[in-house]
Amino acid sequence: MNIPNSNTDKKITVYLIEDEDDLQEALVYSLEQLGFKASGFSTAAEFYRAYAVNRCDVVVIDIELPDENGFSIAQHLRSASNVGIVFATARGDLSDRVRGLRGGADAYFVKPVHAEELAASIEAIYRRIKAAEASAGRALQPHQPEAPRGTGRWVLKEGDWILYAPDGRALRLTMSERAIVTSLFKQRNKPVDRTQLAAALGGGDLENFDLQRVDAVVSRLRRKATAAGISLPLHAVRGTGYQFQT
């Protein structure tokens, strides 16, 4: 049975993070048979690399993964985007379900997961996201400025995925870069602590979070800006973190 992807001319893209190979393969195959464009990943790192290049519409996450807790992945995604989030896990305790839903998940399934029920949930989530985006677009349309080129100031646009320099040059951000820049923009011209930036990156367990990941993202962003001929006013603040000066 094919479930039609209503209200869209393209297939709904689903990323599945599941480290049990047989289950991952079976769910990806079933979702594709039901009309979705599905891809599977065994680790959070594999997923992040793929998501940075091509975003999905909905991500299905197992909680127990070899390199990162599923709750942390959901927190990271929810802080940086409006992607649909579904948990599919063996953990069925009420406390886990409540934590997952409060942490940003749109739905929570306990294994075994039936593909058609999962597909119906994915479609419902996708429709809600698109309806909310359309509603927000209509509400903002009367006040929408012209393309932010040459405004004389730093501007975040396109859902905070593109940073425009004062001269109009654009820098497209990855998911991690977007999380850092958005946090710095909220407190522009003020130092932002590295732990705050780590939290923006999805470091829910800050005690075990490697703060050098923040430095790595900032360093990569600076190199990318330099390569694009953009002088990025992103400065290290000794003993604190970083500051975006405008």
Automatic annotation (TrEMBL):
How is this protein named in the record?
Answer: DNA-binding response OmpR family regulator
Per UniProt, residues of the OmpR/PhoB-type domain are: 144-246
Q: Where is the Response regulatory domain?
A: 13-126
User: What PANTHER family does this protein map onto?
Assistant: REGULATOR OF RPOS, TWO-COMPONENT RESPONSE REGULATOR ORR33
Acetylation as a keyword of this entry, yes or no, is no
InterPro entries listed in its UniProt record: CheY-like_superfamily, OmpR/PhoB-type_DNA-bd, Sig_transdc_resp-reg_C-effctor, Sig_transdc_resp-reg_receiver, WalR-like, WH-like_DNA-bd_sf
Q: Does the keyword Ribosomal protein apply?
A: no
Q: Which PROSITE patterns match?
A: OMPR_PHOB (PS51755), RESPONSE_REGULATORY (PS50110)
Keyword terms = DNA-binding, Phosphoprotein, Transcription, Transcription regulation, Two-component regulatory system
